[in-house]
Amino acid sequence: MCVDYRDLNQASPKDNFLLPHIDTLVDNTAKHSLFSFMDGFSGYNQIKMAPEDMEKTTFVTMCGTFCYLVMPFGLKNAGATYQRAMVMFHDMMYKEIEVYVNDMIAKSKREREHVGNLRKLFERLRKFQLKLNPAKCTFRATSGKLIGFIVSERGIEVDPDKIKAIQELPPPRT
After folding, report:
1. If we measure between CA atoms, which residue out of 9, 80, 76, 72 comes closest to residue 44?
2. pLDDT (0 to 100) of residue 139
3. Are 71 and 45 contacting, i.e. CB atoms less than 8 angstroms apart?
4. What sign has the CA pseudo-torsion 77, 83, 86, 90?
5. Which residues form the Reverse transcriptase domain (predicted)?
6. Is the dihedral angle over the CA atoms 79, 80, 85, 86 positive or is it negative?
7. Which strands sit side by side in the sheet containing 149-152, from one edge to the other?
8. Phi and psi angles of residue 17, each rounded to the nearest 5 degrees, phi first
9. What is the C-alpha to C-alpha distance for residues 174 and 167, in angstroms, rounded to an integer?
10. In sequence order, which residues have a C-beta less than 8 Å from that of residue 103 and are 6 or more positions away?
């Protein structure tokens, strides 16, 4: 269902909860030897709406009038709200894991440490009933793509696909 929330977004105050700085996220992730890249299943739709805010998401169809019980895409503060919910990992962030909205990266220097980090992460996900999208998860990688960069034990490298896209841009015609 696609709902136009422009009026609601205009009437809503901006949530200034900060998303992590991408450069810090990439720097904190590099120089590790093992990575697991995970994606939250249906991202924002895993966050339950506050009962008093459900009616604000009301939409009408030919079958009736409905409202969302979970946070829909398109709300101005959805990203900030989701990132705030990631406080569930407060003791793990910047150490064993990095979280950027619905993307989670477990990182470690050794295999045994990595298994422990994943166990702790999965226990937390289970406790708060959050699901991962298995089709978008990669476990126990020695390098991986992260927001336009390749991170590995060697450090940070530019993603060759990003370079290729720029190199293959057609020249301007005007």
Report:
1. 72
2. 97
3. yes
4. negative
5. 2-150
6. positive
7. 143-146, 149-152, 155-158
8. -60, 125
9. 19
10. 37, 38, 39, 40
The three-state (H, E, C) secondary structure of the chain, written as one string:
CCCCCHHHHHHCCCCCCCCCCHHHHHHHHCCCCEEEEEEECCHHHHCECCHHHHHHHCEEECCEEECCCECCCCCCCHHHHHHHHHHHHCCCECCCEEEECCEEEEEECCHHHHHHHHHHHHHHHHHCCCCECHHHCEEEECEEEECCEEEECCEEEECHHHHHHHHCCCCCCC
State the pLDDT at residue 41.
86
- Report the pLDDT value the prediction gives residue 117, as an integer from 0 to 100: 96
CA distances from 147 to 37, 74, 78, 114 (A): 12, 22, 20, 22
Distance CA 49, CA 10 (A): 19
pLDDT at 115: 96
Q: What is the pLDDT along the chain (174 residues), one digit of tens a residue?
A: 789 999 999 999 999 988 888 899 999 999 999 999 999 888 788 899 999 999 999 999 999 999 999 999 899 998 889 889 999 999 999 999 999 888 999 999 999 999 999 999 999 999 999 999 999 999 999 999 988 899 999 999 999 988 888 889 998 999
The structure tokens listed for 162 are 């990003």
